[in-house]
Amino acid sequence: MLSATLAMSSAIVAAGCGGAAAQAPVFTLSSPDLASGQFDSRFIANGFGCTGLNVSPELVWSGVPAGTQSLALTVHDPDAPTGSGFWHWAVYNLPASATGLQRGAGNLPLRLPAPAVAGMNDFHDTGVNGANGGYGGPCPPQGDTAHRYVFTLYALAVPDMHAAAGIPASGTPALHSFVLNRGLGDKLLGKATFTATFGR
User: Fold this and answer.
1) Taking the model in full, what pTM does it have?
2) CA distance 80 to 130
3) What is the CATH superfamily name and number for domain 4-198?
4) Sheet strands side by side (includes 86-95)
């Protein structure tokens, strides 16, 4: 299992390099609710054999790169035995002025700061996350080594990623991830990430 220190580490990928990037504030993402590097029962899914409360954890971030016009959040389990991992949560078009999401923001769309929209995840139509597009907590197969849940926040130089990329808000998490990591090119100004773990 990853150590808590490693699990909660944050990273920055900044556009450009050299002196300008070195002087920029560090773009960080973290969660007070996951400070131990592991999920407790509040944040675990309620379904597929898990009996958690399925509440989305509080998130905080800082050091958003200059020129950011919107932010996007994804939560992905790369260890899920699917061949493509498992997407647990996505929020797009968060305002650049936002500095975090309150606990439970992923459970009710009205709790997201406008004009943010909740994206699809891999619990679609299962009822685990309530309305489609909400937060779906960890629930790895019993007996698996603890899975990693990678939270990533993207800083974008566009106000609306869907308009900029020409994709629907109802698109799959994989399509959105392609756009965020490659399709928007230099409109990706930076990304911050941390990892928490859970096994049962």
Assistant:
1) 0.88
2) 21
3) PEBP-like (3.90.280.10)
4) 117-118, 86-95, 70-77, 147-156, 188-198
